[in-house]
Amino acid sequence: MGPQSVPRGFLRMYVLALTQRQAETGYSIMQHINERTRGAWRPGPGTIYPLLKTLAKEGLVKPLDVEGREDSVAYAVTEKGNEQLEAAKREIFEGANENKPQVMMGLMSELFRPDQYTSFFLRHYRAERELFEEKVVQLNPSERESVLAEMEGILESQISWIRSLRNKKSGNTP
Predict the structure, then answer these.
(1) In the chain, N or C: fewer CB atoms in 10 Å?
(2) Smallest Cα–Cα separation from 69: which of 16, 35, 15, 23?
(3) What angle do CA 11, 50, 9 make, to 5 degrees?
């Protein structure tokens, strides 16, 4: 995954999110991204350190001295940084409620032959399912139950469609 495959402004928002959880050094941010992406994306020092300086200059993060480590600076998000991050997350969430992602995926699907697109879809579906599972267990029990009930309905509908298609192929009727 090259830098061009990462949406513009994403790294900025991601660094704010990391420093929102705990103070981070430039090195720890690079390590975290490398580990989380399994080496697929590794923004280097020439990207991370100037970004941290810019975020600090804008008042979105503040530098903290790290005890016992010469020239090591950790950054923590500021209230202004929290506000900007929350606004960006709202914008993404609200945009996801529109048809735009589905329309763009429809256009993208036209680039591939059916066998290529279905392979692409299945690979990404597996990865998304793993992320979904990771997040759903973090929900409180009532939210989790609601989300799981909705997911169950979606999956039951998909299974019904799959069985219908497979029965047509084999000549069986449901």
Answers:
(1) C
(2) 23
(3) 25
The model's pTM: 0.67
Residue 174 CA: distances (Å) to CA of 41, 159, 164, 168, 171: 47, 13, 7, 9, 10
Query: pLDDT confidence of 70, banded at 50, 70, 90?
Result: low
Single-letter residue type at 5: S
What the block records as the tokens of 144 is 């989790």
The 3-state DSSP class for residue 76 equals strand
Instruction: Kindly provide the residue ranges of all beta strands, DSSP E only, lying in the chain, ordered along the sequence.
Output: 24-25, 61-65, 73-77
Read off the tokens for 16: 């704010």
Domains of the chain as residue ranges with CATH: 3-86 (1.10.10.10)
